[in-house]
Amino acid sequence: MTAFPANPVQPTINAADAGIDLAALDTLRRRIQVEVDAGRMPAAQMAMAVNQELAVFESFG
């Protein structure tokens, strides 16, 4: 069996430094988690890039 890291993709820039509204990002995270927890989708991934730099990459579910 081969083990893989839980999240092999890592952001290359801090979300706040990239100009992403952290309050809005937190609202989006909570909304996605509510949908996954309710069973409306089995899982989700979110990625955001600014100027070709990955600022957010998260998996839910």
Q: What would you note in describing this structure?
A:
The chain has 61 residues and is α+β, with helices and mostly antiparallel strands. The protein has a domain at 22-60. Helices cover 26% and strands 25% of the residues. It contains one helix and two strands; from the N terminus they run H-E-E. It has a two-stranded antiparallel sheet with strand order 1-2. A hairpin with a 2-residue loop joins strand 1 (44-50) and strand 2 (53-60). It is flat.
Provide a compact summary of the structure.
With about 60 residues, the protein is of the alpha+beta class.
Show the helix and strand layout.
Blueprint: H1 22-37, E1 44-50, E2 53-60
Antiparallel strand pairs: 1-2
Strand order of the largest sheet: 1-2
**In DSSP terms, counting alpha (H) and pi (I) runs of 4 or more, how many helices?**
1
- What is the CA–CA distance across the termini? 22 Å
Q: How do the SSEs run, as a string of H and E?
A: HEE
Query: Any low-confidence stretches, pLDDT <50, length ≥5?
Result: none
Largest sheet: 2 strands, antiparallel
Average pLDDT value? 91
Features:
single chain; about 60 residues; alpha+beta; two-stranded antiparallel sheet; 1 helix; 2 strands
